Amino acid sequence: MKTAIFGLGVSAKSVIKYHITHKADEHFYIVNQGEPNRWKDQVQFKGDFTCIAQDDLQSIFKEINLIILSPGIPTQLPILQAAQKEGIEIISEIEFAFRLSDVPVIAVTGTNGKTTVCEMMAKALSDCDKSVFLGGNIGHAYTEILMDDTSYDYAVIEVSSFQLETINTFKPIISIITNITPSHMERYDHFNDYKKAKENIFKNNNDGLVLSKMDFSIANQKMPEKLSYNFEQAIALGEHNQENFSYIYESLKYLRLLDQLDFQKFINEFTPSPYRIQKIREIDGCVFINDGKSTNLDSTLAALNSFKFSHGILIMGGKIRDKSIEFEKLNLFKAKVEVMAFGDAATYIAESLNQNFKVKVFENLAALFGDLKFDDQELVLFSPCFPSFDLYKNYIERAEHFNQLVNTL
Ligand code: ADP
Asked: Which atom of ligand 1 is the closest one to the Cα of 277?
């Protein structure tokens, strides 16, 4: 029986590469939306495969027993439901790589903090002289581990809820769920479906460690405790980062590696990736912070809670996913924050906040900067709270644009 690789994203391309380099004489299928003539050039590999349109998938049902599904494609597609009825197994690339790799996995999921916790974990383990593969949703696809000659001690894998929808045997030695708050509700009918997908991270982890501040009432879960280290010199600001550090602390303790790391030094030195509460500039006592990775309310609240200030400007905006944001949670800051809103969500933000906040609406960031007055402010915080796809290719392009604009002031 044959395999069909469905989708053409980063992880799918890695699976295609693996099939070509390691299963060279095994024919497989690549499936994508629309006529193959329109997309087959994007495959960028030569090998023994046939490209077919998603609408024609049914025609190969009798030939295939496995579909490796890209995270961008919803499992609810009728053609996938039909495939499942035919007994065809549907798995994510995460499950695919896990079946073939024997490197112990530390997996991280959650609404916010996945990348930060994964990077903290990889750095901490490397500082303990362990060889670490860092991948999944971050950097390299997990499948790259199968084509790499390094002998790794650990694989630190960032996993999204979409990837976790289609796991089966995936069994990390440590599973971390940072937090689960409403997000991606464009893809899920109910919050509970999103939460359930995330909980799949510990579906098979009955003898390893599960770490989360949320109570899942399972025997091997540990809720991380408040750390008694000093955070005054930490570059990674805020209580949410103290929480992130606590996942690393508990993991090292579990792996019996704590004595190999100066944890205070680690806290003082760890630097989050760009655009996570990153200081860009200070002009006449006003600090400009780029938290451009923020795409939901919880991360924006985490950013606001990371600073002591009495007057500040919060810049928010982006693509509306759905209109269920609990803006009242921002009221805590109403006495000291003015809001400048831009893009698709600007009017929605203004209508939702107008009772309690001074809100100005702008078409885009450039127009917003044209009106930015910061003489009396201590903080200008760019923490958009919405995805970037209204005006930008991705969050990086949006965050870089903010930096450019700040540097023209
Ligand atoms: P993810 O990979 O889950 O998107 P990131 O580490 O890239 O997470 O951070 C995304 C946003 O969430 C940033 O704005 C960051 O400051 C914020 N953040 C990081 N950790 C947490 C946390 N534990 N709780 C809430 N927000 C967080």
From this structure: 16
